[in-house]
Specification:
Largest interface: A-B, 65 and 63 residues
Oligomer: homodimer
Strand content of chain A: under 5%
Radius of gyration of chain A: 20 Å
Number of strands of chain A: 0
Number of domains of chain A: 2
Largest sheet of chain A: none
Chain lengths: 139, 139
């Protein structure tokens, strides 16, 4: 059976998920640091803080990649809705999403109110995209 | 070798990641739907839209769980900072985080400006938590 992941399948977007330390700089160096070493200048900080920051950086890389994937999906939704003349926003769907995410957040120990604010933040951006797509398709 | 995941390890927080359809209602029913079926009332929608919404719901469940994990880490950071008298905010660290996430977003096809707005949104909440911890510890 072929391996699920191998070096040949690693593109540039995977770099942020690397532990990175000690790899030195490369084509991805930005302002003196690499994507994998945002906490590289935490010298003098308590080791526990450096460890936690490294975990936060890994989680943030995962969040960015998931958000990229989410907007790819909503981009397709926007195009589909525009093609079929469906309205960009769907209040009933949003209500169900909010109720579900609040419940998931509660189970995961995340403030449900924050989860709702977060979804509204994302949805506002999605609707902005959808309106742009709808405007393009009716021009 | 034991399986990495099995039914015995599935807790309630995993339910949102299930495909869920057809499982019926259970203890997690909220307003007539389960955590796994937020798009269950999409009847009459194009099948492609239902498929995309199901992917978006899976991504959202992953985002909520990652955010919960991120706040667990920043909660520890806040407690550590308060114990050691370090200030809640760290402008240099935030600047590095923003530069790194913008670069990761760019590689992943996500609007870097949105990634920055997103991080600022999260950091604002984190600082709110840290200030609350610092206030508690100095009372």
């Amino acid at each position: 059976m072929p391996p699920l992941r191998g070096p040949a399948r690693r593109g540039p977007t995977c770099r942020g998920l690397d532990r990175g330390h000690g790899e030195g700089s490369g084509p991805h160096t930005i302002a003196g640091m690499t994507r994998g070493e945002p906490s590289g200048t935490d010298a003098g900080m308590p080791p526990e803080l450096i460890r936690l920051r490294s975990s936060i950086d890994n989680i943030d890389a995962a969040l960015v990649h998931l958000l990229a994937e989410r907007f790819k999906a909503t981009q397709q939704v926007g195009e589909l809705k525009a093609a079929q003349g469906l309205p960009p926003a769907d209040a009933a769907r949003e209500e169900r999403q909010i109720a579900r995410l609040r419940a998931l957040a509660h189970d995961a120990g995340l403030d449900p109110q924050f989860a709702e604010k977060f979804l509204n933040f994302i949805i506002a951006e999605v609707i902005r995209h959808h309106e742009a797509i709808a405007a393009d398709s009716t021009d």
